[in-house]
Amino acid sequence: MIELGLSRVSRLLQQTPLSWKAIHIAGTNGKGSISAYLSNLLAAGGVRCGRFTSPHLIDRWDCITIGERVVQESLFRQIEDQVKHRDQTLGIGASEFELLTATAFEIFNHERVEVGVVEVGMGGRLDATNILSNVLVSVIAKIGMDHQAFLGSTIEEIAREKAGILKPSVPCVVDNTNDAAVLNALSNRVEELSINATFTSPDEVTVQLPPLAKFFEEVDLEPHQQQNICCAVSALRVALSEIRPGADVFSLLPHLAQVVWPGRLEKLSLQPLIAREEPALLDGAHNPQSAAVLGKYVDRKLRPDSGPVTWVVAASSGKDLAGVFRTIIRPGDNVATAEFGPVDGMPWVQATKATDLAMSLRSIPQIGRVESFEGELLPAITWANEVAQGQPLVIAGSLYLISDVHRLLRDAHK
């Protein structure tokens, strides 16, 4: 069950002053990538850095990294047990995400990180991570329609909720490629707080950050990757001006080419699960905005040299199925609808039934073969591979689906 609010996590951490400074990131899309770029750059610059993102990929603790390495399971469980004991002793009744947030923050203390890069779980204003007080810079990534039941029914309401991480006297960086209504809502909040704000995008980078413009000329990046890097580098400049005055931010740019964020345009071999030499494309696109990005990439990079694309898709219950899948699946494409398994630590997350998803997709005009696979994921991947016959294979629709693919691969390699 999702329960937004700061009172419970405040009580969990009231006896534990946080010993590190934070970079706080909110948004609908891109905040995970921005977090990865930032923590990588900070580590490259000699800053002891922790990162907390959500959801986890395979194991609950892999959402917490120290110095770009996943925290050790033994340390995670040790501190998690302490946090859960505190929760029970004080009768707080914290949610799973609040317990996880407190565990991450305690681990940052334990590991003596200098900067913690923290991604908002949902929204911003009432998200558990908004307990942060010693913030170097706040970042607002791309905002779209998502979690309307909790954040509001309009894009302006959602933007105001996410702008809830902005704090007096704390500078912020905003993705300036957001819709006009979003930018207006964010600008109003910036003005109310009288804080310094940098609105950044690839279009303005030549003027704002000339060395970054040169980097974009040399490295092949997708438009949304450029947007996220603009936000990360702008935020890094603000953060380092506080903790490493005079540091050469732009000397760190080459490290960006090495950053890989699983589940975002990820090319992955599925051997030995299936007999396929060509890599599959994995993407956790789960809302219309991220699906549009995926669709453009597939159309530009995968379709020109081949026939139809074969998909393996799944979705969380309650998602806008038409808004996600009608922007990426084309006439003639073949689709295996699947279901992801239980999500550790997030019992409220349920998969849309594969049969219901298949029924929705069959209404797409001139769609190819559609088969539903309830229960285990591997039969869906096997069928899709046989239908694809070496042509493009894409697995998409949910980060939880991507997690299950990685888990299957890990188990197969044991």
Task: List strands and helices in order, with pairings.
Blueprint: H1 7-12, E1 21-26, H2 31-44, E2 49-52, E3 64-66, E4 69-70, H3 73-90, H4 96-110, E5 115-119, E6 135-140, H5 148-151, H6 155-162, E7 172-175, H7 180-193, E8 197-200, H8 205-208, H9 210-218, H10 223-243, E9 266-268, E10 280-283, H11 288-302, E11 310-313, H12 321-325, E12 334-337, H13 354-361, E13 370-372, H14 378-388, E14 393-396, H15 399-412
Parallel strand pairs: 1-5, 1-6, 2-5, 6-7, 7-8, 10-14, 11-12, 11-14, 12-13
Antiparallel strand pairs: 2-3, 3-4, 9-10
Helix pairs in contact: 2-10, 3-4, 6-7
Structural class: alpha/beta
Percentage of helical residues?
40-55%
How far the N terminus sits from the C terminus, by CA atoms, comes to: 34 Å
Please give the largest β-sheet.
8 strands, mixed
Name the poorly predicted regions.
none
Could you tell me the mean pLDDT?
A: 93
Rg, rounded, reads 21 Å
The SSE string, one letter per element, is HEHEEEHHEEHHEHEHHHEEHEHEHEHEH
- Total number of beta strands: 14
Protein name: Dihydrofolate synthetase
Keywords: ATP-binding, Ligase, Magnesium, Metal-binding, Nucleotide-binding, One-carbon metabolism
Pathway: Cofactor biosynthesis; tetrahydrofolylpolyglutamate biosynthesis
Organism: Penicillium capsulatum
